[in-house]
Amino acid sequence: MPCDVFIPAAVPDVITEEVATRLNCKYVVEAANGPTTPEGDKALRERGIVVLPDVYANGGEFASCIIIIITFMLAIPEPRGP
To answer: What are the pLDDT tens digits along the chain (82 aa)?
Structure first.
């Protein structure tokens, strides 16, 4: 099915080389962590499909991970309810 934007948003490694050759889109926005295999990424580039990497598209996940890491490193207790 043709589309303008394809957004894999759930699991990693979903866009393999085989899948990339069948995609009928202009853009891929990687909302999941690592949804494209290296071979799939190469196939997308060869076909001229623009990819917005997960590092940019999924920045909120990155920010929340940093907060969790800092919390553990500083041993800050989690807030409790009232």
So the answer is: 799 999 999 899 999 999 999 999 999 999 988 999 999 999 999 999 999 998 888 777 677 777 778 877 777 666 677 7
DSSP letter string, the chain? ---SEE---S-TT-B-HHHHHH---SEEE--SSS-B-HHHHHHHHHTT-EEE-HHHHTHHHHHHHHHHHHHHHHTPPPP---
Measure the CA–CA gap between 51 and 5, rounded to whole angstroms.
10
- Please tell me the pTM assigned to this model: 0.71
- Domains in the chain (CATH in brackets) are 5-74 (3.40.50.720)
